[in-house]
Design brief:
The chain is mostly helical. The chain folds into two domains: 68 residues, 434 Repressor (Amino-terminal Domain); 41 residues, no CATH class. It contains eight helices and no strands. α2 crosses α3 and α6 packs across α7. It is elongated and about 50 Å long. The protein starts with a helix and ends with a helix.
Length: 121
Amino acid sequence: MRENTLKDIGGRIRELRIAAGLSQSELAARMGYSSKTTIAKIEGGKIDIPQSKIVLFAEVLNTTITYLIDGEEGYYANEDTMALATAMMRDPQIRALFDVARKARPEDITLATDSAAARSQ
């Protein structure tokens, strides 16, 4: 790959990582890398990315391989994800709720969703 292409892919990975609220260390762990240094190098366009890792980046960052490589077509893998991301960007309350949910324990999320469901009946 040309150097600018690696920088383009790395830039899209960085953009998606930040949008997902992940640190370089968190993304490294999800990708099976031992440290955030590899993610920093990938985001900076300094190292080539194996095909298997491109596929995994797309899965972890909820996007398409085409978007990572070309920057074209759907930014998100599906329309539900796109609608949620759009709502989060437009509504600070939804964004705050998402931030809290990311840090919550699974049992706390279950309790909150059960409570919300009971109130809506």
